Amino acid sequence: DWHLHLRDGDVMATVLPHSARHFERAIVMPNLKPPVTTTARAIAYRDEILKALPPGSSFVPLMTLYLTDSTSPEEIKVARKECCGFCCQVVSCWSNY
């Protein structure tokens, strides 16, 4: 199971160095507040993660976003091009944002 809940802010700053030390990559879950529901937000979150990595780390965050009732087919195409995966709210732990 490659999934990882990095969260953001102080939690991410605490968790990320440990995760990066032990794993080369992880599927980063989208349940932030507010949740990651667009490709643009997934890319921004990935950039936040990369900036927070310890120097010299080669950790690769594999990004995901939630599929919602308002996720358009175009958004899915864009996400796929950006190598983002998808999570359905009903199957993700603690996804009731």
Automatic annotation (TrEMBL):
Mention one GO molecular function: metal ion binding
This protein's GO CC annotations: chloroplast
Keyword annotations of the record: Hydrolase, Metal-binding, Pyrimidine biosynthesis, Zinc
From the UniProt record, give one GO term of the biological process aspect.
'de novo' UMP biosynthetic process
Does the UniProt entry include the keyword Zinc? yes
Protein name (database record): Uncharacterized protein
Heme listed as a keyword: no
Residue ranges spanning the membrane: these are none
| Annotated organism of origin | Aegilops tauschii subsp. strangulata
